[in-house]
Amino acid sequence: MASALNLTWHQYRLERRMFWRNPVAAFFNFVLPLLFLAFFGAVFSANQRNLDIIVPGIAGMSVMSTTFVALAFNTTFLREQGVLKRIRGTPMPESSYLGALALSAVTNTVLQIGIVTVAGRFAFGTGWPRDWGALIVFVALGVACFAALGVALSHAIPNFESAAVYVNVIFLPMLFVSGTVYDATKEPLFLRDLADALPLKHLIDGLSGAMVKGQGLTANGTALAVLAVWTALAIALAVRGFSWEARRG
Fold this sequence. Notes:
Radius of gyration: 18 Å
Number of helices: 10
Structural class: mainly alpha
Number of strands: 0
Largest sheet: none
Helix content: over 70%
Order of helices and strands: HHHHHHHHHH
């Protein structure tokens, strides 16, 4: 056990170095959500109610981009390039390698949520989160849900060249339907019904309650339950279809 944990730690450190050496990954994980936050924050700077919607919305977007998007791309790339197959043939335990990848994604999420929280406090007047416990629970559940969904989606991506299409056809519509930068209750009924069936809307609701409204887990029980169901489903799909080998020769 100690040896496996040590290998996980060393692989995690390697993953962090590789991440920061990849400017494209850093852009999509950190810069893009902050650009959204800066742009829409400037547009609605005179309306505190809108700012109170945007900050938790961008926090939810950050969770999704640092887990779902990153792992869908990375898992597909590593599988199709034969990296996963080679890793499986080394003495390193499979759990250590996959654990390091997951920890790297979690690190990016924590950093991004921290940046959004500080920006909300000092730039957008939302203050510090009202319920830190609820914030931690929703971020943790959101990470588990979207990380598993990212891995599950990678099973359906035939090659790395098409990964951007598969990811963005889910990522971008979900962002706009789920009320990331506007009040989702003002959407047409069919869009509200669609948003209510998706996990991002409920993650944003939970983050909004924790960061802005001062609501705990009890007040957002529905959001918590829906996220939990999505997480269980995503984990089942991620495990069921996982492959260490590329699909092409």
